Structures are given as structure tokens and as C-alpha cells.
Amino acid sequence: MTIHNLETTNSVLNNFISEVRNLSTQKDAMRFRRNIERIGEILSYELSKKLSYSYKNVVSPLGVKKTSISQKNLVLCSILRAGLPLHQGILNYFDSIENAFISAYRKHTSDTDFEIIVEYLASPSLDQKILILADPMLATGSSLVAVHDALKKLGNIKQIHIVSVIASTEGIAYVDKFFPKNTHLWVATIDKKLDENGYIVPGLGDAGDLAYGTKL
Question: Whose CA is closest to 134, among 161, 167, 116?
């Protein structure tokens, strides 16, 4: 798996990352969602540089310009519900992309042990498509592996791009074991630690709760 960690280059992206981590800024759910969306936009721009392009003649009022246009064989799949703001950010940059949604949640068998349950999936065919998987928090990597197992039944996926806001080094290593070697990970920042419950440290907390409110 090829890892693209945008934190290694200074940019305005770091401002958005600092705000989604910040306890005081997190109290504004609308701003939190918008910052995740903006992070998705920046990651999408960088991802777009690795796609295939073909030339098209574009006619302006004064002439014709040969322009390279990205090919339209993309499917964007977000993991509900935390992935929705990130999904919108990616969607802002890929106008004609097809969309898929999948649920994946932790079902705890003890205070520290859990399994990933996938219950809902709505997706077009993935045969010979480039799949963009949006998951803001790549913690243990278990959710992404479970999602991939469900999605690969929908066709022969040409290539996978994972888009995350924060990833752990442990989660990246786990995902790398199960995803195809030509997979790309686009991430805004990488944290080294997971706590005893499998949450990223320092991370930012529960992205779904911060975006949409606490759940039962």
C-alpha cells in the first residue's frame, strides 16, 4: 500500500486538523463538519493527481483548447455515519462520481474486545471501477477490512483509494495486510498510538458523535 501523508508538507490543511482536534472548537458541530469536509476536498485534490486522464477538445467563445479530463469510472463509498462530512468533501471535487454507502460498527463482546458488524450496503457495480473509501478515523483498521470484504463481492475492483482524516500506525499496518498492493491511502495526519479501547491517541474523539450528536 502506498501512503500519502499530507502532514509532512506544511499547508492550510494543518489549520483544519488543529481545529477538529481542539476541544473548544469541537463544541461547534457545524464547524467540525465543515472542517472535515474541507479536509476531504484537499485530500481529493491530491488524490486526483494519481487518476487516469484523457484529452478532450473544449470549445470556448474564442477558440478550442485541448484539455486533459479525468476518466469517469469512480465510485465513492463512505462508512456511515462518521464518513458523511468527508463524503461531501470528496463529492465536491468529483462531480460525476457514483456513490455507495455502507454501515460498519463495533459490537463489543467485552469492555475492550469487539467485532465489526456490517448491516447496510447500497452500491452500484464495482466491476472495473476505481473505489474511493471514505473513513475519517482509521483506528484499528478492522472496519475497513470488513467493509472491503463486503464490497469486493460487487465486482472486480480496479483500484482502491482510502481517504482518512487521522490514521494510526497500527491501523495502517493492519489494513496493509488485507488490501491489494496497489491500494493508496490518503491521510491528513498519522498518530502513533491506540488506547486500550482501540481509539486513536491523541486523535480527536468520536467523529460521528462530534458531527451529529451522541448516540445511545
Answer: 161
